[in-house]
Write a structure and sequence with these properties.
The structure is a homodimer of 209-residue chains. Chain A folds into two domains: 14-53, Homeodomain-like (Arc Repressor Mutant, subunit A, Orthogonal Bundle), CATH 1.10.10; 62-205, Tetracycline Repressor, domain 2. Chain A contains ten helices and no strands. The longest helix of chain A has 26 residues, at 118-143. The model of chain A is unreliable at 4-9 and 176-187 (pLDDT under 50). Helix content of chain A is 65%, strand content 0%. Chain A has helices spanning 14-28, 35-42, 46-50, 56-79, 85-102, 104-112, 118-143, 153-165, 167-170, 192-205. Chain A is elongated. With 209 residues, the first copy, chain A, is mainly alpha-helical. At the A-B interface, α7, α8, α9 and α10 of A face α7, α8, α9 and α10 of B. Chains A, B: Residues 34-53 bind DNA.
Chain lengths: 209, 209
């Protein structure tokens, strides 16, 4: 059974419907977007949407779970590794940058979740779990003598991920071009790998020469 | 002329009205908050609100201008200083952390502005102006040999302020207590000065020992 196309517009599968919903949530806010808005944007009826998902909240859940699943997949891969905590921390940061770059609209939505609904509170709980995991890793690296002891590990972890998460504000992969000497290349120029390099250089060894 | 108190509630001056409005905008989103919601929250009529401000957009403008004026005041103070760009950059970062900590709800609103209204677009334009100023300072410090040359100055500037701006996500000055060895002290423990120290240590010299 497929969703019939209406007025010449293509039908949507769950994936493309989710993509449009997430874009709209990011533009207008989740609370500020109704199923009516989504229906208008898609050019299909609300009942055609309900054919795919039972509620707006379910769209949110699917979207933020995609971001969270990506981040936790990196975390589990990281936990399976031997070696020093500082190296696992760098692995986690690089993997997180890759997830942010690849799933940008989904992570953007996740990071803007406020906690007004059950799905949002569940997402916030998983975010806190991820934060605790980062903090624990920083703490361990500090205990091994690889992370500076003069900043609270919880603060270090939050500042580190503050840097990582800021990518959602300025990284626009669809507009890739090389940065120029005098332009604001930050918006456009970098691949996910180059971004991860930049984050690790600044965060691990600082911007000062 | 003062706003009469209604149903036993105190009257509001513009300042306290603005405080409640900003709190509500941050909880529900600016787009998702109506003057009706604000009127209910305040326990006064909409016309009592319109006695103080002509529109919801004017409340937004007043709020984000407070945050922006604070940041630009630091920038102007910074520009008046002699010496190396790297020292001016540190001055700007410390001053920005102080503004964030002191004007937390106002800066939070500023950083969530989406650009759907004229007031929001004006705020975004001033944010971009501030970003350019930071990038220019990083570029100058790199030219003076004090900032690493292997990351694009625009990227460095954005990562640095990604770290600074992340404070709005986790710093809660009203819940001050000392951090503990195993707790997540990051939420509560630090004064603005301690926060600025932490940001400068991590950003300028890195988290690695």
């Amino acid at each position: 059974m497929t969703t019939p196309a209406r007025r010449g517009r293509p039908g949507y599968d769950l994936e493309s419907l989710l993509g449009v919903a997430v874009k709209l949530f990011n533009e207008r806010g989740y609370d500020g977007t109704s199923m009516e808005d989504l229906s208008r944007k898609l050019g299909i009826t609300k009942s055609a949407i309900y054919h795919h998902v039972p509620s707006k909240e379910e769209l949110l859940r699917l979207a933020v779970d995609r971001a969270l699943n990506g981040l936790f997949a990196v975390a589990h891969e990281m936990e399976a590794q031997d070696g020093r905590a500082i190296d696992r921390l760098e692995f986690l940061v690089r993997g997180s940058v890759a997830v942010l770059a690849e799933q940008l609209p989904f992570v953007t939505l996740l990071l803007r979740v406020r906690g007004n609904t059950k799905a949002e509170r569940a997402a916030l709980a998983r975010r806190r779990e991820f934060d605790r995991l980062v903090t624990e890793l920083v703490r361990q690296a500090a205990a091994e003598g690889d992370v500076r002891p003069d900043v609270d590990p919880a603060v270090t972890a939050r500042l580190l991920y503050g840097m990582v998460n800021s990518l959602i504000e300025w990284y626009r992969p669809q507009a890739r071009r090389r940065s120029t000497a005098n332009g604001d290349g930050a918006e456009h120029g970098a691949t996910p790998d180059e971004l991860a390099d930049a984050v690790c250089k600044i965060a691990f060894t600082g911007l000062r020469t």
